[in-house]
Amino acid sequence: MKKQTIILLSLLALSPAAFAKQQKVKVLDVAPVYGYVMIEKPVELCRPLHSNKQSSRHDTALLGSIVGGTVGHLTSERHNKAQATIIGAVIGGVIGSQLESGRYQVSNPPSMQCTSHYVKAEKVRVIKGYDYWYRIHGKLYKGFSKSEPNRYISVH
Length: 156
Prior knowledge:
Blueprint (H helix, E strand, L loop, with lengths): L1 H12 L2 H4 L3 E26 L4 H23 L5 H27 L4 E25 L2 E7 L6 E4 L1
Antiparallel strand pairs: 1-2, 1-4, 2-3
């Protein structure tokens, strides 16, 4: 068994791949290869959320007018009931409107909904790789590499 393993390893070592020579050659010239890419930039778009704050403000003013008018009507004398009702309604409406306005500004700031999307902003030139030239046995060859080649490269 040991003898067969040694023979097998010897055959593998003497295979044609083992004899393939790598040759170091000098790189004669290098030129960058350019390409273009589109750069996308984020754009944020914000909008106020739809709310019923305005109608809520009107509702509070209306409720204030009803309460003020009722209080004015109930607390006035008989011959001043119409005027007291109107004055109470106006004062109640103003107070209701002011209360809602103050509540809106202090505790419920308007909510915003923001979304981001990308737009193609500009075309940018980038290096895609490098063309390089080398000579073997008097013949000129060209190669390509993603990274810039060294001064000497290995070829088969």
